[in-house]
Amino acid sequence: MPELPEVEVVRAGLAPAVNGATVTGVEVFDARSLKRHISLIEQQSGEIAQGHGRTLDAATQQLRAADFEKRLTGVTLGPAVRRGKFLWIHIEGSSSVLFGHLAMSGQLLLRGIDAPDDKNVRIRIWLNHPVHGELRIDFADQRRFGSLAIDELVATDDSHPGGLGTELPLIPQQAGHIARDPLDPAFQQDAAVRGLRQKSLPIKMALLDQRILSGVGNIYADEALWAARIHPELPANQVSAKRLNELLTAVQFVFQKALAEGGTSFDAQYVNVNGEAGYFAHSLNAYGRSGKPCNRCGETLKRSEVIDRSSVFCPVCQAKRRRRG
Ligand SMILES: [Zn+2]
Predict the structure, then answer these.
(1) Is 194 among the catalytic positions?
(2) By 3-state DSSP, what share of the chain in percent is helix, strand and coil, each rounded to 5?
(3) What is the pLDDT of residues 145-182, one digit of tens each?
(4) What is the pLDDT of residue 272?
(5) Active-site annotation holder among 42, 169, 309, 315
(6) How far is the C-alpha of 217 from the C-alpha of 4, rounded, in Å?
(7) What is the CATH number that goes with domain 189-313?
(8) pTM for the whole structure
(9) 2 noted as active-site residue
């Protein structure tokens, strides 16, 4: 599943191609990839079909596809913005945005107009950019947990910019509940530490709570806990503020390093906008390395099931006993 570094690589790849581009056409091949898109008719009637299930009835699918195509065709796109794992593209002169969530296997591919089709393309957006000419964005998604949508901007609750890529203090409604991520200039580390300390959940689970800090999923949680030498099952409220600060510094470090290496393509589902894999999988110290030697002490890494998440950790470096500090 793409986490912050992977979504940021996609955002940075799309940004120059979409900013200033006119949408010349939209084709929805599979309306199940619009599960987060609520049509104007549904909004006005207040009868919103089950939006987050994987199945939508055929009439709703047709309605949403037509609504999405109509509202996006002809608009001029603006900056591409990201907070945590959410991505959106501003629409010039409008309070609406094109909103995207890649979820498990979503890909946003930037292609020339004559490029051959990639697998599992669900939605295609045709663009004409004043500098780059004609292009298309293909939203491919093998497992269909991801979605594109048109969403409305609302004010951020702290008056800071909505995310990386914009100066405007606006955020799409669907991302409004998501906390800032550790690479956001307006990220408040003290508040995140306080949020974590209020949780009696295992620290691994608390780290995945997107309302405390966003952008962290299974891969970077395991990597940051390994780097900060914290056992994934330790209750968050038993970890000292000092060690939680070290943990958040570790999150920032692994994010930066993964970004520099183009993200982690662990299961071949994540690729950049050109369809290329990232290199960070070669730099992983914990995630996916159960049974292999710890890169720090040589002990065999173990796997544990923390609630419904599998975690890999070093039983020596990340001993469960409470450490002072
Ligand atoms: Zn170790």
Answers:
(1) no
(2) 30, 25, 45
(3) 899 999 999 999 999 999 999 999 999 999 999 999 99
(4) 86
(5) 309
(6) 8
(7) 1.10.8.50
(8) 0.93
(9) yes
Q: Does domain 4-175 have CATH number 3.40.1010.20?
A: no
Residue of 36, 71, 85, 243 marked active site: 85
Q: Judge whether 316 and 299 are in contact, CB under 8 Å.
A: yes
Q: Name the helix (H) or strand (E) containing 256.
A: helix 241-260
Give distance in angstroms: CA of 264 to centre of ligand 1: 22
CA 51 to chain centre: 19
Q: Which residues contact 40 (CB under 8 A, 6 or more apart)?
A: 67, 71
> What pLDDT band is residue 324 in, cutting at 50, 70 and 90?
low
Each domain of the chain, given as residue ranges in start order, spans 4-175, 189-313
- Residue 85 designated active-site: yes
In the residue annotation, 197 being an active-site residue is answered as no
User: Which residues surround the ion ligand 1 when the cut-off is CB under 5 Å?
Assistant: 294, 296-297, 299, 314, 316-317
Predicted local confidence at residue 53, as pLDDT: 47
